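Figure S7 source data.
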Amino acid sequence: MENKKRNGFGTGMGFVLASAGSAVGLGNLWSFPYKTAKYGGAAFVLVYLLSVLVIGSVVMIADIFIGKRAKANPISAYKKANKNLGWLGLCAIIVPFMIASYYCVLGGYTIKFSLNSFNQNSTNLVHFTSNIGEVIIYSAIFLVLALIVVMAGIKSGIEKACKVLMPILFILLVLTVIYCLCLGNGVRDGLNYYLKPDFTVLIENPNSILAAMSQAFYSLSLGMGIMISYGSYIGKEIKIGKSVAIICAFDTLVALLAGLAIFPAMYHFIGEGGSVKFDNGPFLLFQTLPQVFDTLGVVGQIISFLFFGMVVIAALTSVIALLEVVTQFFIQKFRISRKKAILIAVLLCFAFSVPIGISFGQLVANVIDGKNATFMIYGNDLLSYFDDTCNTILIPTSALGSCIAIGWFIDKKITANPMKTFRTLKQDGLNLGKYSKFFAVKTKYITPILILTVAVFGIIDLLKKGSYGICVVITGFSIIVATILIYFIFFKNKETGCNLDEIDIAIATELKAEKKENNAQQ
Ligand code: PHE
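Tokens for the predicted phenylalanine complex:
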């Protein structure tokens, strides 16, 4: 029982790797390259880098700090900053749940594509999507893998898994980059598109600036409970500023490396204008790339196996983080064991993933074979619908919440003066040294304004899309209103738990089991 007395990360390295694991995901290996292709290449990359530096790192510091200070789930953590902000914590639990529900469908696809590497993967997409039973089974397998890790707890599950998986992922990625850079023809053109900025693209299409900013948020897993939750499991000795620098750098490095592999490869295999052909989201990963691998014979099959294996790892460490947020909340609010909490979380996710899987499959069949898609929301599949609702409305709201909580509410006495805020926060474990002042001003003024701008323009853009956009906006705001109502009615004046509760519950469960065993023996 002794080892259960502390539930949290065993080492700073473990925390950094687990956070990097949550950050590095499909967003880096898939959306980053295809969005770079779609929004104009190197100029997009530069705005992305700037967003990580100016907005992303600040929100990450705020998130981790809110968690570390409270040592509790996101609701209790926001509550500690200010009782009226607790609903932001609820929002930060609902978002990971929504993301996990569609992420596991994509995770299932990646497992299938990895295992199918030796069997004509280029035609796999149509077969696989038309067999909905199989899609559901693979989503379930993916969820079970995540369940096993989360059930084992923070130190023996999440930390251990990420310590093994993250280095493997990185090695596989570096090998892929080396291979792609040695392809010869087309490599230079691909690199030119990827690395030489043409700023007129940004002026012609200002949406690309917004896309780069929201990509940075998504990629760093911000604006949802993840960094609050992981932050709650770290000890005093861990320096937030330094950890954030490493996590952001690693996440960005992985995204950049993914581009460094994909652009040269696409220009090599597809030829002039290679970027244009693969800016079409899901088809890059599940059609264009398998077609390329298939042309390479056995070598291509091996590369495909390793490549999709790498994507599975990236997606898995992200879903583990998403599920941990929901699990932590269930344990602490409902006082149930970790085992029960993760089981409930996974079952709920699975229930949502089924319609999402069906709808996504119909979209694919519609694009490839022109089949009629019926399970849609105004012409869009459910996966995009969930993704758009989270990315455009819920994530920015929650990220804005972190900054506002830290910058304005954490303690009235100290927030009046940003400089003082951070002197006081230092005693609370946030040591940013000489950057304190800069960080204070950024958290209080600059970052919230930037987030708000991204959110407003994102919403306007959605509304321009007609019925679908309006539906997404209404869903997003309805979730926020529901969250506020639920919080004020059910949670505000009730106990919402903290990390220490898990130890109590674990001990109580163990005692109960021992008692049962003794009774049975008698
Ligand atoms: N950051 C992950 C990615 O880049 C996505 C993710 C978002 C994971 C939110 C966890 C939470 O794919």
